[in-house]
Amino acid sequence: MKRILVTGAGGQIGSWLVPALRSQYGDAKVLATDIRQVSPEMAEAGPFQVLDATDVRAVGQAVMRHRADTVFHLAAILSAVGERDPRLAWHVNMSSLEAVLEVAREQGCAVFTPSSIGVFGPGTPKNPTPQDTIMRPTTMYGITKVAGELLCDYYHHRFGVDTRGVRFPGLISYGQPPGGGTTDWAVEIYYRAVQHGRYRCFVGPDTQLDMMYMPDAVRAAIGVMEADPARLVHRNAFNVTAMQLTPEMMAAEIRKHIPGFIIEYEVDPVRQAIADSWPDRIDDSAARQEWDWEPAFDLERMTADMLKHLNQG
Ligand code: NAD
Ligand code: SER
């Protein structure tokens, strides 16, 4: 990776990944793009361009002008927004991926595409969920992610495009808020704890999902792209996880820092059903074996770091 283009750079992951890529590969080497304006910090620290990732011609021109050899394709519609507007989710997620892969085929780029625990469904073994298993999701988001994994594999086998990806769990971070996913409660809980000392959670107290702190997610994205291709048995996409959390577990950890913190529940049936269809614990041993994946943050370390930064902000 020498010259990189990032789509959807203004979102939750991009707002962390772009600065990390710029510090590792050079500010001028990383072109941040998004369909909307991004933060002034991102736009001023290196090249930025407004780009609709579903527009194959515009993506092709941006890759050519920047002489990009790698695309991190983050533009997408997430699970909860996708259930509100399934056609939008299908259009954005599939058209943008197809555009990026076509441009990568024509111009010889490598492509990172984040998949998700959303590829799994009620028929998948829940604990542990193997790397290779049943993928019959019940959300439009999950359907686009399964189709996306297959399309990335196809472009690798058929055209030799260096496609790689990970199945991210719910990602927790400060800064740019999450873009409308089912796991957003695990971010909101920290903000409300600091701002109001209480949080009304939209999934039930024992809803367990895989989660990861954003610094680990950034390391996973860069790590899989830097991995020795000779070691890769899988490509699209590796299970990766760091911890398995319920709202009750997170509330108990937050109370160690904010003793009076109160959590209440007002379950949203749509997002609860999505969460219930996803695994309790994914098995990420393939990522550990094939490219030495290992997370650094557990619940204790993440909570201390999140609260420190939110209290500073
Ligand atoms: P996000 O919603 O925060 O950001 C997505 C960005 O894409 C936004 O800035 C949006 O403006 C942009 N975008 C939307 N449509 C676009 C288009 N047509 N062209 C260009 N940009 C467009 O999402 P995120 O959390 O940063 O997720 C990035 C990727 O990671 C997605 O593929 C998502 O499915 C995946 N992922 C995220 C999580 C998570 O917990 N955040 C977990 C698993 C997988
Ligand atoms: N955090 C994402 C979502 O909830 C998982 O892919 O949509």
Defining key terms:
313 residues; alpha/beta; Rossmann fold; UDP-galactose 4-epimerase, domain 1; 6-stranded parallel β-sheet; 14 strands; 15% strand; binds nicotinamide-adenine-dinucleotide; binds serine
Topology (SSEs and partners):
Blueprint: E1 4-7, H1 14-25, E2 30-34, H2 40-45, E3 48-50, H3 56-66, E4 70-73, H4 79-84, H5 86-107, E5 110-112, E6 115-116, H6 140-159, E7 163-164, E8 166-168, E9 170-172, H7 185-196, E10 198-201, E11 209-213, H8 214-226, E12 238-239, E13 243-245, H9 247-255, E14 262-265, H10 269-277, H11 285-291, H12 299-312
Parallel strand pairs: 1-2, 1-4, 2-3, 4-5, 5-7, 6-8, 8-12, 9-11, 10-14
Antiparallel strand pairs: 11-13
Helix pairs in contact: 1-8, 3-5, 5-6, 7-9
This protein binds nicotinamide-adenine-dinucleotide (NAD) and serine.
Nicotinamide-adenine-dinucleotide (NAD) is lined by residues 7-8, 10-14, 34-36, 52-54, 74-76, 78, 92, 96, 114, 116, 168, 170-171, 178-179, 181, 183.
| CATH architecture heading of the largest domain | 3-Layer(aba) Sandwich
- What's the number of helices? 12
Oligomer: single chain
Report the biggest beta sheet as strand number plus sense, adding barrel if it closes: 6 strands, parallel
Helix and strand composition category: alpha/beta
Give the total of domains. 2
Overall geometric form: globular
* Low-confidence residue ranges: none
Name the ligand types. nicotinamide-adenine-dinucleotide, serine
Task: Please provide a written account of the structure.
This protein has 2 domains: 4-169 and 213-239, Rossmann fold (3-Layer(aba) Sandwich), CATH 3.40.50.720; 170-211 and 242-279 and 297-312, UDP-galactose 4-epimerase, domain 1. A 6-stranded parallel sheet has the order 3-2-1-4-5-7, sandwiched between helices. A 3-stranded parallel sheet has the order 6-8-12. It has a 3-stranded mixed sheet with strand order 9-11-13. The chain is an alpha/beta fold. The two termini are 33 Å apart. β2, α2 (40-45) and β3 form a beta-alpha-beta unit. The protein has helices spanning 14-25, 40-45, 56-66, 79-84, 86-107, 140-159, 185-196, 214-226, 247-255, 269-277, 285-291, 299-312; strands spanning 4-7, 30-34, 48-50, 70-73, 110-112, 115-116, 163-164, 166-168, 170-172, 198-201, 209-213, 238-239, 243-245, 262-265. The protein binds nicotinamide-adenine-dinucleotide and serine. Nicotinamide-adenine-dinucleotide (NAD) is lined by residues 7-8, 10-14, 34-36, 52-54, 74-76, 78, 92, 96, 114, 116, 168, 170-171, 178-179, 181, 183.
